[in-house]
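Could you join me in thinking about how sequence relates to backbone shape in a protein? To get us started, please write out a protein record for me. Would you write everything just below, so we can both look at the same thing?
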Amino acid sequence: MAVPTRNRRAEILDAAARLFAARGFHGVTIEDIGGAVGVSGPALYRHFSGKDALLAEMLLDISSRLRGSAAAVVTTAATPTEMLDALLNVQITFAIEQPALITVHDRELGNVPEQERRQIRRLQRLYVEEWVTVLAELHPGTPAARLRAATHAVFGLLNSTPHSAGELPSQAMRPLLHTMARAALHASVNTH
């Protein structure tokens, strides 16, 4: 029985993320990716036009999903405090479940074609602005630039999971990251 195309694409993207994180974009061939999912390298061209298109889709997809999750949180949570907790949970889930994507994004965004790289950056800016909007409601009078800087710093803290993955089980890591991120945000807006 053939694997549906959408599932096969997701399988290819997951395998490519792990390989790119381990060996770098230039250290991985189409054949390596195909081998990781049990098909010939050339068979991947049925799903992606090339390795750079695969990388672009991988990073566009996660940027779009994070942005969409943040927008959903902001429109459904009842209070700014609930919104912030939900935003933290979105980012923590991503950080714990997708450390390979964090590594790939940090190291390989420059290998994404320019048009897609601009789209990724735009989605990321929109994601950050969802956080800034919520933080501004919680801390009126704090300059947006400070809230934006604090958001990026908290992402750095939460996205450190590629370096700590496996040290603690997920059920212990989640509350640790949540507490640390909350404390960092509190300190950043209350220390001038």
Notes: The chain has one domain: 50-190. The two ends are 62 Å apart (CA to CA). Residues 46 and 111 are 21 Å apart (CA to CA).
